[in-house]
Amino acid sequence: MLKITPIPIIQDNYAWLIQNQGKTLVVDPGEAKPILDYLQQQNLQLDYMFVTHKHWDHVTGIAQVKAAFPECVIYGTGHHDIPCREIALMGGETFDLMGLHWRVWHTPGHTLDHIVFHTQSQEDNGIIQDHIFSGDNLFACGCGRMFEGTAEQFHTSLQSIISLPLTTKIYCTHEYTLANIDFSLHIEPNNTYTLHRQDVCTELRAQNLPTLPTTVADELKSNPFVRCNSPDVIRAAEHFSGKVLGKPEEVFAVIRQIKDQF
Length: 262
What we know:
Blueprint: E1 3-9, E2 13-20, E3 23-27, H1 32-41, E4 48-51, H2 56-59, H3 62-68, E5 73-77, E6 87-89, E7 94-97, E8 100-106, E9 115-122, E10 128-135, E11 138-139, E12 142-143, H4 151-162, E13 169-172, H5 177-187, H6 192-206, E14 214-215, H7 216-222, H8 231-241, H9 248-261
Parallel strand pairs: 3-4, 4-5, 5-6, 10-13
Antiparallel strand pairs: 1-2, 2-3, 7-8, 8-9, 9-10, 11-12, 13-14
Helix pairs in contact: 1-3, 4-9, 5-6, 8-9
């Protein structure tokens, strides 16, 4: 049965450990020691690594983990050099691994090389559950900084993620949720769902529990970066920019600019 575990690394990152059919995979190993410690404690071998993009907090642990598990195969973005990468992925690929069918999308915006990994599992009740490992593209109530590319590219990438079924679980790689909620309420102070989410996530963090994964439904109801058609989000963007914004990607660009200064 599919098991997905967050391993806290660095300061506020998660590396996601995926287990299925006796095989183990880690996503974005930005720091080796916590991952190796967890694998040792659980008496697990590591078979695969997935890497979404080039940033140091996603790749720094790769070489040390690879040294500990030489047979581990590394799948990573092919749009940039990734340490020890053996299989380069450009987006558009599909493959079967660990009894799961995977799809890879190229999602530029945070960086131009960014990719995401999508798969599905069948629950005990027979329902098909979608899972997407979104790296630093889509966060709970937020999105990554736009280091490269255009607002139009980034907006398109986020829309591709939230076009998945509402129940889709989104595994992003930073515990930024409470800070993102603060910003979301700055943009939409009357969003009652975001206020509810703030209470829930505050309680989770008080217990030192992760606020992730999130879901497509949660993001559509509370994340201003994917709510660029919401009247309150448009109003906030137009107030900041001092002009009428006719396209969702224009609203997105301004909301990202506000967040950069928040």
